[in-house]
Specification:
Layout: E1 4-6, E2 20-27, E3 35-37, E4 41-46, E5 51-54, E6 58-62, E7 66-70, E8 77-80, E9 87-94, E10 107-110, H1 113-122, H2 133-149, E11 159-160, H3 165-177, H4 184-188, H5 195-206, H6 210-225, H7 233-239, H8 245-256, H9 260-268
Parallel strand pairs: 1-3
Antiparallel strand pairs: 2-9, 4-7, 4-9, 5-6, 5-8, 6-11, 7-10
Length: 269
């Protein structure tokens, strides 16, 4: 579990009496490992590029056309998924009494065009109270739209995180070698246990097999490569360790709910 750091007063605001405020900014490579906690709900979108949301138990990506609701008090960290990339983000912070959530977990959903437009408008008033005047009306409408949008969960990948050292070693090996052919006996060469013991330990803690984790990690990397408009899909499949393009298309559609080509159009255009 990563270290948790309280972050309730890091916006340069006197939060007493403030019901909602926005924060626009640019996310770049963040090497910090602590998890943050806010005293407000946070809604965040990535205008371009990709973010990775972590809560200490799982990781999930945030793409263009999606939004994430991070509930009040939820430990989390937000990172840029692709190295050397800066991602423009729009965020809105809400007092929990303004919007009642049904879960304590991070929720990634498909934000509507109206929700996107309202969030962009609210972000014009950076780090200011949004509960009064015209912005107050925009805020009320956004919350009304949010109550509908939140019920449209996004198709995405969730990668569980390991605590046990041996399972962290397995994940590290996958991250370093996903582009190559990987067999289960490869893990027995770096962990002094039998293949059966390694696979059972991984399954017991992460509730997913090593092979399925490898498949999901390859698809996650493929979604990163799909942001490169000039990179051919067949090359992406091979670069992510697939031997057959047909298998790549089948797996991608099963996880994301659409083909790689349609996914690319959705996140770029």
């Amino acid at each position: 579990m990563k270290h948790i750091q309280e972050r309730s007063d890091d916006f340069g605001l006197n939060l007493a009496g403030i019901h909602a405020f926005s924060k626009r900014g640019i996310w770049d490579e963040d090497q910090s490992e602590h998890l943050n906690i806010h005293s407000f709900h946070q809604i965040i979108t990535a205008r371009d590029g990709m973010l990775l949301l972590e809560d200490g138990f799982e990781k999930q990506p945030l793409y263009r056309g999606m939004a994430a609701l991070i509930p009040v008090g939820k430990p989390h960290i937000i990172k840029v998924l692709r190295q050397n990339q800066k991602v423009i983000c729009h965020s809105l912070f809400l007092r929990p009494e303004l919007f009642q959530t049904t879960t304590d977990n991070i929720c990634v959903y498909e934000i509507s065009d109206l929700g996107t437009a309202l969030l962009k408008e609210l972000n014009k008033e950076n780090l200011k109270d949004l509960s009064e005047g015209i912005m107050g009306h925009c805020l009320k409408l956004f919350i009304e739209i949010l109550s509908m949008d939140i019920h449209k969960p996004a198709h995405l990948i969730r990668l569980p995180e390991a605590i046990e050292a041996r399972n962290k070693t397995v994940i590290g090996f996958i991250q370093d070698n996903y582009m190559n052919k990987i067999r289960l006996d490869h893990f027995a060469r770096i962990i002094p246990l039998s293949v059966r013991q390694i696979t059972r330990s991984f399954q017991d803690e992460l509730h997913i097999s090593i092979i399925e984790y490898l498949r999901l990690y390859r698809l996650l990397q493929a979604s990163v490569f799909l942001h490169q408009a000039n990179k051919k899909i067949i090359d992406i499949a091979f670069d992510c360790g697939y031997d057959a393009v047909s298998s790549f298309h089948e797996d991608f559609r099963r996880i994301f709910g659409l083909s790689p080509n349609r996914f690319r159009k959705a996140i770029i255009h």
